[in-house]
Amino acid sequence: MIPKRCSYCKGILEEGKSEFIARVGGEVIIIKEIPAYVCNQCGEAYFTPDISRKIDKIMEDIHKGRICCRPVAAGEIELSV
Ligand SMILES: [Zn+2]
Fold first, then answer.
1. How many angstroms is it from 12 CA to the middle of ligand 1?
2. Is pTM beyond 0.85 here?
3. Tens-level pLDDT at each residue, the chain (81 residues)
4. Could you tell me if residue 28 is inside a domain?
5. Which structural domain range is residue 19 located in?
C-alpha cells in the first residue's frame, strides 16, 4: 500500500500526477498523467496497486506491439568530444 511518508526522505506524500518512463527495445516510452502520490521533498512518486496494475497492462500491450507509440524525443544528448 501507499506509505504515509516518503520511504526515502520522510517527506509528506501529496496527491498529484506523475510519469512512468520505461525503455522498450531501445525506445523510450513515457506514460504521462498518472495519478500518484508524490513526495513534496524529493519528488518520488508512489502508485496505488490499482494504478500499478494499469501500468503493467500498458507495458504488456507495448511489448506485444498492441500499442503504437509515437517516438518521443527523450532528451538524450550525445556527447561528442
Ligand atoms: Zn521523498
1. 7
2. no
3. 788 899 999 999 999 999 998 887 777 888 899 999 999 999 999 999 999 999 999 888 888 877 766 665 656 666 776
4. yes
5. 13-63
Ligand 1 centroid to residue 1 C-alpha, Å: 16
Question: In CATH, what number is assigned to the domain containing residue 40?
Answer: 3.10.20.860
Cα(41) to centroid(ligand 1), Å = 5
How far is ligand 1, taken at its centre, from the CA of residue 51, in Å? 20
Q: Has residue 80 been placed in a domain? A: no
C-alpha 63 to ligand 1 mean position (Å): 31
Q: Which residues, at least 6 apart from 75, have a Cβ–Cβ distance to it below 8 Å?
A: none
Q: How many domains does the chain have?
A: 1
